[in-house]
Each structure stands twice: as C-alpha cells, then as structure tokens.
Amino acid sequence: QVDVAAMVRLFGYVDVTDTGFIVAALSIAFNPLFWNVVARWEHKTRALSQVFGSPRAACYCLGAVILVLNCVRSHCFTEAMKSQPKVEGWDCHWTYYSGLAISAVGTLFVISSFLALGFTGTFLGDYFGILMEEKVTSFPFSILDNPMYWGSTAIYLGWSLMHASPAGLLLTAVVAISYTIAVLYEG
After folding, report:
1. Cα→Cα distances 49→44, 55, 77, 97, Å
2. How many folded domains does the chain comprise?
3. DSSP characters for 114-156?
4. pLDDT digits over 48-62, tens only?
5. What is the predicted pLDDT for the residue at 91?
6. Distance, CA of 150 to CA of 141 (rounded, Å)
7. Cβ atoms within 10 A of the Cβ of 159, count?
8. CA-CA distance, 2 to 79, in Å (whole number)?
9. Pair 179, 93: CB distance under 8 Å
10. What are the distances in angstroms from CA 41 to CA 8, 35, 44, 52?
11. Which of 44, 110, 177, 187 meets the CB 3.0–4.6 Å disulfide criterion with 151?
12. Using CA atoms, how far apart are residues 21 and 172, in angstroms rounded to an integer?
C-alpha cells in the first residue's frame, strides 16, 4: 500500500507551474513522439531516404537529430531540477551514492544496448528498411525488454537522487510514462 501522505509531502516541493519544469516535461514527452512519428512516416513514404539519397544516410541523420533532442531533454531536466527545492534529508552521501549506482546501472543498460544493436538498430533502422539478421537476445536484452528505455529512465532516477530533487523524481515518472506509451505504440 502506498503512503499517500508521504507522496503529497514530497510533491509539495515541486512547482509544476514553473516554466522550466513545464519545458522539461514537454521535451520528455516530445522525444519518443517525434521519433515514432518520423519513423512511421519514413516507413510509409520513404521520403527521408529520397531526400538524403539512401536509407542509411537518412537513418544516420535521424539518429543525429534524436541525439541532439536527447541532449536538449537532459539539459531541460537538469535545469528544472536546479530551479526547484531539494529535500534536505536526502542531501547526504547515502542518497548521492545510491543515485550514482542507479545511474551507473542505467548507463550500463544504455551502452550495452547500443553496442548490441549498433547505430541503425538503435535509431530505428528497421523503419528505413535496414534490418538486422536476427533478433538480439544477448545482454541486456536477455535481462529485460527495452533496456535502452529503462536504462535511460534509471539514469534520470539516479540523477534525481544525486540532486535530492523531488522535481527530478516527478520528471523521471514522466520519462517512464512516455517510454511506456512509446513501447505500446512501437509494439
């Protein structure tokens, strides 16, 4: 059973009307929406492949855009955390190192996913007609489905704990919800 009173106290620290918080939440929700819409559009029209001269060049360009958008999202996330209050009781070594460990596990999942899939496998190459020879089942895919999404979520969770940030925790929930919706859409 969830202690609702503790959650209410925790989110009493968060100003969801703060412009930085709103921009961060919108950038978090925008990214998977953007890449799924563009990839589906490419799959139906092959328009990007035509503009860039090949499916591989188009996929690399979309991947570059996704990476830039992820940097913008991370910057907005960090700025939103910095503009909101910390929980003083969390601003300690134990919470910091717990967050660091969670971020490290998330980073392991993201990097190992990328290494297992390669650039085009990571950045929607299948929508461009660039198919892998077989489904990847090695680590981290042997541990969980969608390890890049959940690794990324873990990175944000760890980052939030490292900064003792309730706003970061709420934004991490937005990340998890956005990825859950993306998985449903992609599946």
Report:
1. 11, 4, 32, 45
2. 1
3. HHHHHHHHHTTGGGGT---SS---STTTTT-SSHHHHHHHHHH
4. 999 999 999 999 999
5. 83
6. 11
7. 22
8. 29
9. no
10. 41, 10, 5, 15
11. 110
12. 12
Give residue 96's domain range.
Answer: 4-186
63 vs 92: CA distance, rounded Å? 38
Distance, in Å, from the CA atom of 89 to the CA atom of 85, rounded to the nearest integer, reads 12
CB 26 within 8 A of CB 105: no
Q: What single DSSP character describes residue 42?
A: H
Beta-carbon count within 10 A of 183 CB: 14
pTM confidence score: 0.90
**151-179 tens-digit pLDDT:** 999 999 999 999 999 999 999 999 999 99
CA 158/CA 150 separation, integer angstroms: 12
**45, 53, 119 from 57: Cα distances, Å:** 16, 7, 12
Rounded to whole angstroms, the maximal C-alpha distance in the chain is: 57
Could you identify the residue written with the tokens 């106290």?
9
pLDDT tier, 185 (very low <50, low <70, confident <90, very high otherwise): confident
